[in-house]
Design a protein that fits this description.
single chain; about 190 residues; mainly alpha; 9 helices; about 70% helix
């Protein structure tokens, strides 16, 4: 290997870790749920082309095991959507790439966490809310990092174009809560 290849691989590894951290941050502050955070971070961080509000809408039905049903983990489904966004093209070869990568992600997720089912993942973990919530944030971060590595292995040209400002931003739980309640609170005082 030459020095340029080593530098590219190191940059891709560092980027994948930053993607994990940003996903964890968005989930742990309550700004986004699992599938939303995974897709949003990968889309905006790596330049997937979806407007941020569209990425949120696309992923909004998958949290808590597809609409709170407890089925497939939202972190996994957010990852699969992301793989399709970045690896699939308008031809059968691109679709096969996305399908193969999605199969690998499913296998790796199941091997790491013991299940792909949200209900089982919660059952296997602690039923105490803070522990359960942190475990979900960890799975979301892991999925985003793992998918980022898969995408960057196929599309290394994306690494230097990453939105570093977005990926390195840290939201606080208090700021997220204020953004959620402030509009309603202000409407009490300002009538149209």
């Amino acid at each position: 290997m030459n020095k340029e290849t080593d530098n590219r691989e190191t940059a891709a590894e560092e980027l994948a870790v930053i993607i994990r951290q940003r996903t964890f941050n968005l989930m742990s502050t309550g700004r986004m749920m699992c599938s939303e955070a995974v897709l949003s971070v990968l889309n905006q961080g790596l330049g997937g082309g979806l407007p941020p509000d569209v990425a949120m809408k696309v992923a909004s039905g998958f949290p808590e095991g597809i609409g709170s049903s407890g089925c497939t983990c939202g972190a996994l489904t957010g990852g699969v959507i992301s793989l399709g966004l970045f690896l699939s093209q308008n031809n059968s070869n691109g679709r096969r790439k996305a399908m193969a990568a999605s199969g690998r992600l499913h296998h790796d997720f199941k091997s790491r966490f013991g299940s792909t089912c949200c209900r089982m993942l919660i059952k296997n973990g602690s039923s105490e809310f803070p522990h359960h919530f942190e475990a979900c944030c960890d799975r979301g971060g892991w999925a985003a990092e793992h998918v980022a590595r898969m995408i960057l292995a196929e599309r290394p040209e994306l690494a230097p174009l990453a939105d570093q400002a977005f990926l390195r931003r840290k939201d606080s739980r208090i700021a997220v809560m204020l953004k959620k309640i402030l509009p309603g609170f202000l409407s009490l005082f300002y009538h149209k």
